[in-house]
Amino acid sequence: MVLEQFALTGKIALVTGCNTGLGQGMAVGLAQAGCDIIGVNITEPAETRQHIERLGRRFLNIAADLSRYENLQSVADEAAAVFGRIDILVNNAGIIRRQDALAFTEQDWDDVMNVNLKTVFFLSQAVAKQFIKQESGGKIINIASMLSFQGGIRVPSYTASKSGVMGITRLMANEWAKHKVNVNAIAPGYMSTNNTEQLRADAERSSEILERIPAGRWGLPSDLMGPVVFLASAASDYVNGYTVAVDGGWLAR
Ligand code: NAP
To answer: Taking Cα atoms as reference points, which of 69, 75, 96 lies closest to residue 16?
Structure first.
């Protein structure tokens, strides 16, 4: 029956950057659907652990800095070893730097591109090899942005990285569909998390943004629970390379 296709009972999901914000919301949503969760974080995810263990699911954290390429293979190896397999990867960890394009520095370019794009590709590559070794298929869900579709203002490296995320989502989907690995992305709209703290603190930008959202509110981490469970489940087995906007209608305007 169709609802059974959404169940994730006993699946193992690796979620990067799940100590707070959207990553925490998605980790908890996946656990509610039946997953055990492996987090990858710099900051100890004590609150996330509590939420997940309260649901009766297992939670293990791997402490790692995802801005460093040399850490990625060992993250994938440790994740595969801990519960014996991986079924789902959510590439959520991301950063943003805000500065006028004329004053933007190389450091702000490289830092953002490393975490938001290079790491998404190479961690996906390492986990896809594990999926293929398991002969089980797998699900990769990347976190894109409205700035995968639009230019944005004062966030050059963020726009470049998130536009790149939508592109490599398609590329990885094309190459790995034959291994039953689905690669898709979620593009959140304007969500109330640390990432948008500066925007929400700016009364003028904040009201400009709010006025343009047809749903009339900023998004919440819980708004991503349904979409991530769908893309992680058998219900989306024939969805490949697509970026789903979860934006209260922002892109429809
Ligand atoms: P957030 O609260 O700032 O969360 C970002 C997460 O990434 C945190 O867990 C952070 O850890 C982690 N992280 C950053 N750099 C890392 C690194 N080098 N190694 C390991 N973990 C790292 O922001 P958020 O809004 O939830 O963002 C989650 C994702 O959604 C990001 O990819 C973001 O670009 C994307 N997004 C957000 C919005 C929005 O409106 N909020 C919209 C579109 C897309 P720490 O807490 O330890 O720094």
So the answer is: 75
